[in-house]
Every structure is written in structure tokens, then in C-alpha cells.
Specification:
Helices cover 43% and strands 27% of the residues. The strands form 5 sheets. The chain has a 5-stranded mixed beta sheet with strand order 3-2-1-4-8, with helices on both faces. Strand 9 and strand 10 form a beta hairpin. Helix 2 packs across helix 4 and helix 5 packs across helix 8.
Length: 506
């Protein structure tokens, strides 16, 4: 038996270590597991005002102070009383830079489920805004509200919607703001209590109950959401109130069974109330938070308000589906741990700088070595550059000579051919020869007779008049200007019927 216990202990330790290592290796920069924040939760309750101040450092959550201010008369705390009590608490605890959460009683809030077609998933916030007056007696203009998706399949969406009358909350928010206490989140006691119990009881479906000497709150949690809940004040836990609470729990039990979930009950209450209630509900498995689940949240030896403590845990936690009635259904963005992000970005920047700067430094050193080698080779380099310049100059001279030679030979051939084919009493005043064409201008006894001679020559083709001819009466000759193509490789012979016709016409 001893060996078996040791094996079980080792196995449990190994599982815990492996989970911790796995959580660290898969940690994201956007994960609030690395966040640090301070939270003050303010809960309005039937017995007065409860406040819890605590901090979250990485995965550790600690309650630093708690206070409960009792009010006489059995009425809800007024905005001024609430603001004064919270201001004094902040002053006494020297709280700075904290996030303030305002928790309203379940009886002030309308909570219900609503179904929509899956097609509205992309613009769900606008749909709820437009349908709020149909789903509740309130309109978006006079309500604080928020919702979460509790069921999502291919055909429809099921939402859990919470709404409260705006004017009822604004008076408290304004009074707190006047005391320099800005409220960042407004939630509901039912959500806070279920968050508290769900922290130690991780099953997605159960019945929860939180009760003290003057109030109780219970509901059914389905898929981690308190879809059904109720709360009321209690003067004393006599048989009548115990029976009423037992009937309420049976109603929630029936709802769980209808949804196909086995009924379980988790109770946050004193031991005598727990025993009295379980005696009336022997058919429902029950867990006591303090005794069975080993959860002991006490401050200075006194019990802390379940709603205020749950609201603190909800605000300090990492649940992206927590409710904030000030959000009006807007997308919830998880806070990124800024300090870690800055640190990691600085490390990344240093690594990038090293990989960018190190090659530059190495290349600069190589350049310096090359410069030293070039300094020793500079006389030889100058000689090589002089020879290269001389070779370039000679190549340019050769190119000019070849171009001149080619052009000269072409011009001489054209002169020879014209001298051979042009008739007597024909003289030229201008001759222009290019690589592909030639132009002649001059006087002849009959200019039209020249075109056929040029067309039939061995060197010219496609001869035509470049301008009209005219008769010089004084000299009794025709003045002409003729353009023609050369028969050579640089200007290959092309068929041009239009040119041939022009030549024949002239």
C-alpha cells in the first residue's frame, strides 16, 4: 500500500510539472497569465456595501483587503453613501492605479437567453442593439447591457443577455466619479458568484448557491454560464426560507435534467446552513466550498462577501467572456502584458541589431584590408589603367576609320554608277549618299528619262522625284530632285508597288 501511495504521489507531481512546462512553452504575449493588475470590486448588497481589494501577479491572485459597510433600514445604499464608503476604503488602503469594478444585485438586472440565426454571427452586436427593445423592456438608449454567446452551431446562436436600466446605475457611477473613482466595469452578482464557485469547481454544469445571514443567491450554470439565477433577502433561516430555497434549487435541478446534464450542487454558506439544506435535498449530490473543495477565502478571520470576491476574481482573471454592462455588447479585447511585451520587443530589437550590425562591421574590416592591398598595388593599377585608356583610344580610332572607309567606298561607287548611266547634258548640283539611300539634284535635258535609267542600274532602286520638276527657260533644261534606295546589305530590297508606279508615271 505504501509503494502504491508513493507511486501515486510521484505520478501527481509529474502531471503538475508537465502541465506547468506545457503552459510556459505555449505562452502567448497576449496571454493575461503574465499580467499584473490591481482590482477593487464594489458590491451593492441587501445588507450593505462589500468591497474587496486585491492584485494579480502572473498566475497568483491575492486579496489584500476586504471591508463590509452595514446600512440601517434594510434599504439599498444610496449613491452618496456608496461613494463615501468606497472613497474611505481607497484612502485607508492607499490604493492607486487600480481597476474599479461595480457589482450590481441580481434583482436589478434582467438576464435571459435569446436565439438568432447563425447568419448574423458577423454583426451580432448590431443585431442585439436593434433587437434589445424586443428582448427586454429597455431600449439601447436607456440601458447598460452586455451579452455572450453560450451556444454556437451551424444553424443558430444562443446568447445570454444581461441588461439594467441606465438611470439606476448612472447615479452610482457619477457619485463615484466625483470622488475620483472611475468605474471600468459593471457586472452582476450572479456572474460574480458563479465565477467564484467555478474557480474551484471546474465542471461546466451545476447548481450554485451563495448564502449569508441576510441574503441568498442561486442559479443553474450550463456550459460555464449562469443561464438561470435568482436572489432575495432573508430575515432569518427558518423553515419557511429553507423550504423556499429548496424549492428554488429543485427548479434549477429540473432545468439541468431537461438540458441533459446530471444535477450537482455547490454551496457557499456556513456549515449549519449547508447541513440544513442538504438534509432537504438528499437526492442532489452537493459540495461544500470550504469543506469539500478546500477553498478558504477569509480576510482577517472573517468571511468575505461571495459576490465581491467573485467580482474581484472575474475582473482580475483572464476569462474573455466576462460581462461588462458598460461595453454594450462590443468585442472584448484581452489586455496584453505591456511590460513583458516591451521586454521581448527590446530583446528582439537587440538580436536584429546584432545580425544587421555584425555583418556591416565585418565587411568594413574586409574593406580596410582590401584598401591596404590596393595601396600596395596602386602603381601597377595605374599602369594597367593607362594601357586600358590607350587601347580604348585606339579602338575609337579604328572605328572612325572603318566608318569613313565604308562611307567613302559607298559614295565613290554611287558616283561611278551615276557617271555611267546619266545621259549627256546632265549635270548634278548636289549628291547625298547614306547607307541605304541616295539623293541627287541637278539639271537635265529631260528629267523623266533619268528615272528608268536609275531603276535599271545595278546600284539603285525605287527612284522617284522628291519634288516637282520645272523647266528652266533660260537654260532650256529641267531642274530635278530625285530620291532612291541603294541595293546593298544594310538596306535590303523591298517590294513597293506605289514607288514603282510613281516612277513609271514620271
Amino acid at each position: 500500500m505504501t509503494d502504491q501511495n508513493q507511486f501515486q504521489t510521484i505520478r501527481t507531481t509529474a502531471v503538475k510539472v508537465s502541465r506547468a512546462v506545457g503552459a510556459f512553452l505555449t505562452l502567448s504575449l497576449a496571454d493575461n497569465l503574465l499580467a499584473f493588475n490591481r482590482v477593487v470590486c464594489i458590491s451593492v448588497e441587501a445588507t450593505g456595501i462589500s468591497m474587496v481589494y486585491g492584485a494579480r501577479i502572473s498566475t497568483a491572485v491575492s486579496v489584500r483587503a476586504a471591508r463590509k459597510v452595514a446600512l440601517k433600514g434594510g434599504e439599498w445604499a444610496s449613491p452618496d453613501d456608496l461613494a463615501e464608503a468606497v472613497s474611505q476604503f481607497v484612502k485607508d488602503q492607499k490604493i492607486t492605479g487600480a481597476k474599479f469594478v461595480f457589482l450590481v444585485p441580481r434583482s436589478w438586472v434582467m438576464i435571459q437567453t435569446a436565439s438568432f440565426p447563425a447568419a448574423v454571427r458577423a454583426y451580432l452586436g448590431n443585431v442585439v442593439y436593434n433587437e434589445l427593445d424586443r428582448l427586454t423592456p429597455l431600449s439601447p438608449g436607456n440601458a447598460f447591457y452586455d451579452f455572450n454567446t453560450i451556444e454556437d452551431d451551424e444553424n443558430h446562436l444562443t446568447l445570454l443577455l444581461a441588461a439594467v436600466r441606465r438611470e439606476k446605475i448612472e447615479r452610482y457611477l457619477s457619485a463615484l466619479q466625483n470622488k475620483s473613482i472611475p468605474v471600468a466595469q459593471v457586472s452582476v452578482s450572479s456572474f460574480a458568484v458563479s465565477q467564484l464557485i467555478g474557480r474551484v469547481y471546474h465542471h461546466p454544469h451545476y447548481i450554485y448557491l451563495a448564502a449569508d445571514e441576510a441574503s441568498c443567491e442561486c442559479g443553474a450554470v450550463i456550459s460555464h454560464f449562469p443561464v438561470r439565477s435568482a436572489s432575495w433577502p432573508v430575515s432569518s433561516w427558518d423553515d419557511a426560507n429553507l423550504n423556499r430555497l429548496a424549492d428554488e434549487i429543485r427548479r434549477h435541478r429540473d432545468a439541468l435534467i431537461k438540458e441533459g446534464h446530471p444535477p450537482r450542487m455547490v454551496i457557499w454558506a456556513q456549515a449549519d446552513l449547508y447541513q440544513a439544506l442538504t438534509a432537504r435535498l438528499a437526492d442532489i449530490p452537493a459540495f461544500h466550498v470550504n469543506k469539500d473543495l478546500k477553498a478558504d477565502w477569509r480576510q482577517n478571520g472573517r468571511d468575505v462577501s461571495a459576490a465581491a470576491l467573485g467580482g474581484f476574481l472575474e475582473a482580475a482573471g483572464t476569462n474573455p467572456q466576462s460581462f461588462n454592462l458598460l461595453a454594450a455588447g462590443k468585442d472584448k479585447k484581452r489586455r496584453k502584458p505591456l511590460a513583458l511585451t516591451v521586454l521581448l520587443f527590446a530583446a528582439i530589437a537587440a538580436i536584429c541589431a546584432f545580425y544587421y550590425v555584425a555583418p556591416i562591421v565585418m565587411e568594413e574590416q574586409k574593406v580596410e584590408q582590401i584598401d591596404l592591398r590596393l595601396t600596395g598595388l596602386r602603381p601597377e593599377i595605374k599602369k594597367i589603367e593607362a594601357l586600358k585608356n590607350e587601347a580604348d583610344a585606339i579602338a575609337d580610332d579604328i572605328r572612325v576609320i572603318n566608318d569613313f572607309k565604308k562611307q567613302s567606298v559607298l559614295t565613290i561607287d554611287a558616283l561611278k554608277e551615276l557617271t555611267a548611266i546619266l545621259p549627256e547634258k546632265t549635270w548634278l548640283t548636289r549628291l547625298k549618299v547614306t547607307e541605304s539611300s541616295a539623293e541627287i539634284e541637278g539639271f537635265a535635258a529631260k528629267a523623266t528619262a533619268i528615272i528608268p535609267l536609275l531603276e535599271s542600274s545595278r546600284l539603285f532602286q525605287r527612284a522617284e522625284f522628291g519634288s516637282p520638276t520645272f523647266r528652266d527657260q533660260r537654260m532650256n533644261t529641267d531642274r530635278f530632285f530625285i530620291k532612291m534606295d541603294l541595293k546593298n546589305k544594310s538596306a535590303p530590297e523591298k517590294k513597293n508597288k506605289a514607288g514603282e508606279n510613281n516612277g513609271q508615271a514620271k
